[in-house]
Amino acid sequence: MIAEVIVDIAASETDRIYDYICDDNIVVGSRVRAPFGGKIVPGFVMRLKETSDFPPERLKKVLPCGDELPALNAECLALAEKLTARYRVPKALTLRLFLPAEMRTGKVRELYRNYAELALPIEEMKLAKTAKNQWGAAVYLAENGKTDCAHLNSAYPGSVAALEKKGYVKITKEQRLRDPYKTVTTEKVERTLTPDQQRAVDTICTDPRTVQLLHGVTGSGKTEVYLTLIAKCLEEGKSSIFLVPEISLTPQMLSQLRARFGKNAAILHSGLSAGERFDEWWRLRTGEAKIAIGARSAIFAPLENVGVIIVDEEHDSSYASESAPRYNTFDVALLRAKKNGCKLVLGSATPSVETYKRAQEGEFSLIRMDKRINKRPLPEIIIADMRREVRRGNNSSFSGALKEEIEKCLSEDKQAILFLNRRGYSQTVICKECGYVAKCEACDVSLTYHRDEGCLKCHYCGTKYNMLSACPDCQGKKLSYAGTGTQRIAAELEKMYPTARILRMDNDTTSGKEGHYKILKTFAEKKADILVGTQMIAKGHDFPAVTLVGILDADMSLHFSDYRSGERTFQLITQVAGRSGRAEEQGKVVLQTFDPENEVLRFATRYDYEGFYQNEVSLRAAMAFPPFSKIVRVMVTGEDDKKCIEALREVYVELERLYTENPDKFLFFNKMRAPIKRIQNKFRYQVLMRLCDTSVLPEIYAICAEARNRDALVSVEENPSNLS
Ligand code: ADP
Ligand code: ZN
Questions:
Q1: How many beta carbons lie within 10 A of that of residue 423, not counting itself?
Q2: What is the pLDDT of residues 610-645, one digit of tens each?
Q3: 541: domain CATH number?
Q4: Ligand 1, atom nearest to 373 Cα
Q5: CATH number of the domain that residue 710 is part of
Q6: What pLDDT, in 10s, does the model give residues 222-243?
Q7: Are residue 202 and residue 270 in the same domain, yes or no?
Q8: Ligand 1 pocket test, candidate residues 250, 254, 373, most atoms within 8 A of CB
Q9: How far, in Å, is the centroid of ligand 2 from the Cα of 459?
Q10: CB-CB contact of 486 with 397 (8 Å)
């Protein structure tokens, strides 16, 4: 047989199919070891055929890797080919998405354990009466069957070896799958769906459209809808994919999933060790587990016969990949859903403008859940005007209103969450007296402060502005270029409330496999009164005793230099506010801002998504920002400046040709240095485009694939979330 093999080297020179001779037992999708350039490299069998166009004496032979099942099933192979064509990256890179890294590097040692079982009936054994341990072990085995030798030996020391020597027990080696969630407690809760939830499930199952948008307020019980859909699939023998943002894989979520689906669920997340991740993947591949749960990469789960794909918090920015191939999780999910003829369910309290627009236009089905399960109104949001606080001489991070609420909360033995917005932190100039924010005259997005050059820049058109020494609106001198960290907030709190138990959660405190989990668990067990944190605490958590949420700097993300900053701010406030008052008690939210008249904040405090959406969509239309256009950035990066410029020139010439041939498809086209010229010793150049017609997109990818060379990386980003 001849195997068409892709070698696992992510370089454009080796990015093609090679013919090899192989044994007849090799199947499509399996990993092989291929002699290549004097070395043995791993590869994948893409297709099999009888003959090759090359003379047989020129063909080498591939060897099997010894996997029990081919690493890639037919669906994954087909999907990989589609993605390769779409994003024009080396095939090896796309294939890698489908495998746990550990499998490629061969670093996981599968864990084996010895198990003992009786080799003959206990009556036939001739054991001395005094051999107490051997008797004990034999009786145990007779009663319990096959048992872990380590376990037996600890209960009956020395018994296993002695029994084996006499031929009374048989020892077998078996693969023991690691259980990453030993510490997760499971409590099974049986629930009947509310009429709203039932209606959502029914619509999703019967509506003919592939994409179903579940727009439900926080606490409306979306999770239960997802779990019901997954359970239905399981009953029908189908598999499911359930995607959540990484930080939503909270202890509550894990235990709920474990309790509901037990070993049928494989949970993949970054906190797992290499071995654990491999095991979970393997359970999916063998079909032992039928539910893949995880962050965006779980969309590549090795499943067959998928019955439903769920993307929770669909608006979350973590669904866009930041390294090649820069796939969009939604696009991949849609391909898989169509291939399997199943539904793709998107859930959110604050859908992205793009998704909502498509639902409004009827392309997606739109299901609303407007009420919280506990029938309580959403928490009241009070705006605290920080300009007034500054004018009054309050230079702390806490407004009078927030302090008052914290005190009330503490005295009533309830819990509070204080949220600090780190996104966009220290990037924008804001006047602390009037709330003025510096914006680009042409693009209407906030300018970003570049400390190294001492200037302000617009990331959308490249214009530079001088630094400000005073506010152009009120002539005030209290300009802030920096935000505050969680550490300082926690310290301030400790000083104000010495007896309160304060917990901090941010990137510094959540290292280690279970750091995240431990902090949340401590808080859930009411071993702390106040939780201070960043974006990480915004989503998914369900703490019944929390009645107060403080948003310390609501406008920080509003002024992030991104056309989506309004959308992000609305989403963030809604999510964070949703943490308050989830049980019996009515919740409250204090939102601190330097810009209390801001429209986005106003819509957010009223939970008026529809109003926000209408306002936002007309702004986007007026400025021709997505979804009315597509922003495409071609980045050229590399350590050698000259080589980068060469590569840039090469792509630029071709892109410019494309532009001049199709001027009506471009709204904007420009070559420039990236706003941050160098990151980690790599020079960065970009060609920034805004397209009103995406039919030129495949050609843009093709041009960039051509220009890729050893010393310069050329990548394409679509609607990047960060233009720095
Ligand atoms: P969402 O994901 O929409 O924010 P959740 O799924 O977290 O909302 O549900 C909010 C709360 O309601 C949770 O505490 C959940 O356990 C509870 N809940 C959900 N569905 C039901 C139901 N059918 N009966 C009782 N409680 C429910
Ligand atoms: Zn601009």
A1: 19
A2: 999 999 999 999 988 999 999 999 999 888 889 889
A3: 3.40.50.300
A4: 12
A5: 3.30.70.590
A6: 999 999 999 999 999 999 999 9
A7: yes
A8: 373
A9: 7
A10: no
